[in-house]
Amino acid sequence: MKIALGVSGGIAAYKAAEIVRLLQERGVRVQVIxxxxxxxxxxxLTFAALSGEKVITGMFSPGEEQEPNISSAxxxxxxAQSIDALVVAPATAxxxxxxxxxxxxxxxxxxxxxxxxxxxxxxxxNVNMWNQAATQANMEILRKRGVKIVEPGSGxxxxxxxxxxxxxxxEAIVAAVLEALGASQDLSGETVLITAGPTRxxxxxxxxxxxxxxxxxxxxxxxxxxxxxxxxxxVSGPTSLTAPGGxxxxxxxxxxxxxxxxxDLLSQATIVIMTAAVSxxxxxxxxxxxxxxxxxxxxxxxxxxxxxxxxxxxxxSQIVIGFAAETTNVLESARQKLIAKNLDAxxxxxxxxxxxxxxxxxxxxxxxxxxxxxxxxxxETTKWDVAQRVLDQVVRLREHRKSAVKx
Length: 407
Ligand code: CTP
Fold this sequence. Notes:
By secondary structure, the chain is α/β, with parallel strands linked by helices.
């Protein structure tokens, strides 16, 4: 997925740098376009370094040639056709006026006319400029044309005044962009039940057994499924992540609590995805009091219930996806789990590799489906991107099922 991020001239222009990073984390490529005025506030080099792409700064880039650069003169058409959304943050009163009136005087305003992709604008300006009837009339025109407006917030403004006109929070802008990108809504009507994070198995009142899972993979799946139109039930072990807005959360600690929550919710789900790193063992009897230090000791452990196996034995028509973390014999072990746990697909990651998997922003996985043993490789990328590929596979499995029922 690729977007064009237009940065227009305002004090808030520097905030666009963080927006580039947040979108990239979610696997979105960002082509930055700066207006002349924006370049007075922040240098194009900042965006070039962050986005890894050349920043477009004008209609006719000087280039090395002496002749006018023909290719850059039609670049707005090429960009217009290659993007999945046009986002402007911050959007000044002037840019909004140009958009509303269809006046094309630079690259960004020309691109607006040339693209058919969804448009998202995040205005930022002085409170009086925002409240001006002219600005409000332009906003109304844009709103009617289907432009998504991320409303500015109220507060202290750089000009020293207080009121509406502050650029919206970055998270709100990113959410609006993702919504515009997820226009396909291919999971609408589905209820996706997802487990995430580690579990904690109590040893005594202050100690527990757990693992390095951060929960990021499950939370990314929850967010991606929401953007694609699904209802999401998220059963989460202890993590430091904020719940994706719109997900229905059940927070649990132990494997037993996770098991109960899953069995309770299963009948509502049409798709189940188990990313949780469930602790495999728990102490047989947790101590009521803090255990005193008294030399060598051993813990008497017993296995926790295999939640996924129980889910597939209770399931009706749900599509069930498991995750597997392996260090040796990666694909073969995953295939065995696919069969043993009666799954529709398994997503396997080689956790012995550096920088991916557990407690990391990134992942590299192989998705093995039951259907004709199909194997999809997802080379190292963000967990957001992995989440999208897993959901693509869910959609494929659903299609296979539908055609099998018809046949
Ligand atoms: N799983 C589960 N309940 C458990 C252990 C694992 O539901 N008690 C689920 C995980 O959420 C994951 C899948 O089973 O989706 C595979 O987890 P993994 O730890 O790789 O497999 P195990 O069955 O625990 O096998 P092993 O640890 O021996 O490789």
